[in-house]
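quick one before i forget lol
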Amino acid sequence: ITPLALRVPTDNRDWPRHLHRWLLGMVAQWMGIEPMYGLTMVPLLVGKQGDGKSTFCRLLLPPELREYYTDRIDFSNRNDAERSLSRFCLINIDEFDSITRSQTAFLKHILQKTSYKQRRLYTQTVEENVRYAAFIGTTNDPTPLVDPSGSRRYLCIRTAGAIDTLSPFDYQQIYAQLR
């Protein structure tokens, strides 16, 4: 995990440890290891446009899992946003600074969910759907957090240059280590 973290140039010496912890939580959530708590920490990559932040986020999943990655989530459509919790493994809140204050409040709400309930059309039964999605975010705004009460959920990592997205990722070793 450390070589993966070191692809992101940052002055934050704790970044490898934090990334490792977050990735462990992400994989544990996929495996249903801790059904009582959702993964509430959101790494937020903060840097200049073109640093490779979004590409790095997408490359965190191996090719066989990329269909379970999205960087398009509409927090104004609450039902669709909740359905994304069980549809995707990794949700990138790309351009984090573009979500509104009310959407930020809703995001805080769904970050804590381990499942969501849904009634399908033309049925009367309510189904419970397990949450698999972990969240990560990117932004170019150097001061993206505006809600003083919700900042504990976000781990802001300032990039100090371009992220290495060209070297091959050793997915087999990364996910074996996390498992």
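fyi Residues 97 and 141 are 7 Å apart (CA to CA).
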